[in-house]
Amino acid sequence: MSARRPHPKSKSGCTDCKRRRVKCDERRPRCDNCRKRNVLCSYSVFDLTPKLPTTSPSRDVRLGSYIRVFSSRQREPPGSVFGHGLLSDDVRNGLVRQISDSELPRMAKILQYFAETTIPTLTSRAEAQAAWRSALPNLATRYNFVTHGMLATAALHLTCLDPDEEDLETYGTIAAIQLNIGMVHYRSEVQDVTTANAEALFAFSTMVTMFVLRTAGDECRATLDLMTSPASPRTHSSTSISDLTHTVCRIFRSLRGVLVILVPCWEQIQGGLLQSVVRRDWWPQPIPVTLMEIENDEKLRKLEKLWSHPGKSYEYSSDTLRYALKGLREAFALVSRLIDLAHCESASEPTSFDWTSIIHWPVALPLEFLTLLEQRQVEAWVLVAHYAILPGKITDIWWLKGWAVQFIAIAALVIGENNWEWIAWPAAAVGFDLDSLRNDTNTPVCKQIPTAQGT
Questions:
Q1: pLDDT tens-digit series, residues 310-321
Q2: Start and end of every Zn(2)-C6 fungal-type domain (predicted)?
C-alpha cells in the first residue's frame, strides 16, 4: 500500500473559522466564510497592518476602492447642523494628512453621522454631548488617532442599521481599517500618559470601549447560537465555553483600561474639555431608598453566602468577592436612583438617565476578580450574572445591545446546571430561559454551592 501523502496541518485562520472548526481561506481583510455569513472577521479587527491600496507615496493612507460610504437610497444628513463642530476646516485639514482629497467628502459624511447619531449613544446628557462635539475637533487636529477612532466607531454603528450585504461589508471594512490605524498610534502614545495627551487618549479609549463591546457581543452571540444549534457537535462545548470566558474577561479588562489614563491625569481631564463628560458630582448617593431597591439589595447581600457559610474555610479570594459584591450593591442602588431621578416629575430640570453608570461596576473591579473569572470560579460568575440585570435596563444602545442575556447565558454555562438556582433571579429579570441551555449543550459539572434558599 502506498504511503499517504503528507498533508501540512495549519492552526491559522480567523477566530470565527477556528471556533467553528472549518477551513479558513485566510483572505484579508475578510475571509470568504465570514463574508458569506455576514459577520465581522477577526482579520479585519485585529490585523494591525491592513493591506491598503496605495496610489501615491506622498499619502500615509489611502482607502481607495475599500470605501463606498453611503448607498444611493440612504438619506444624507443636513450639512448645516454641526457646521463648526466635527466638519470644521481644522478637522478636514487633519484628515487630509491621511486621506486623499477625493475621499474627504465621504469621510466627512461619516464624521457627520458620528456627530448626529453616534455621539448621542455615548451619553444621554445634552451638556455631555455638547462637550464631545466641542472637544473632539480640537483633539483630532492634534492627535490623528482621535479622527480614526471617530471614523471607526461611526462606520461600525452604520453596520447596525441592517444594511444590505454590500454595505455591511463596506462599513465593516472601514471600521476595522480605521480602528487598526488608530490603535497603532494610540498604543505608542499611551506608553507615556501626560496632561497634554490625556484627553485625547481618554476620548479614543471611550470609542474603543464601544467598539469592543459591540464586536465582542457579536462574537459571543455567534458562539452561543452555534452551541445551541442541533447540528453543533456537543463535544465542542468545553472549547466554546473557554472562548466565551476569555471574551468576557477581555471586555472587562478593556473597560478597566481607561484607569491607566484617568488615575494619573484625573485633575486635567475633569477640569478640561471633557469635564461635562467625566464629572459625576451630580450623581445621587448609591443608597437604596424605595421598597424595591431595598428588596433587591437584600437579595444581593445574601450572595455572600456563596463564600461565607458554615463548613467553608476562609480563602483570600473571599476578600476580592466581598469587595466586588459591595461595588455591585452600590451600582444597583446608583442605577436605580438615577432612573428614578430621570423619571421624577418634581425635578426642577428634566434629567435623562445616565446609562454610563451601568459600566461603572466593571471599570472599578480589581484585577484579582478578573483572575477569578478566568479561573471560572463559580462565585465570581454568579456575581457577573447578577450584574447582567443592569445592562438589561438599556435596550436601545447599539453597543450594549444583547449583553444582558449573553452575560446570563455565559455565566450559566460556566457554573453548571447544579448551581443555576443561584442565578434564577437575574435570568428571570432579563427574560432568559435557562432551560434553553439544559438540553442543547453539555454544561460542565462544577462544585455544588450550598442551596441559595431565601435569595
A1: 877 888 899 999
A2: 13-43
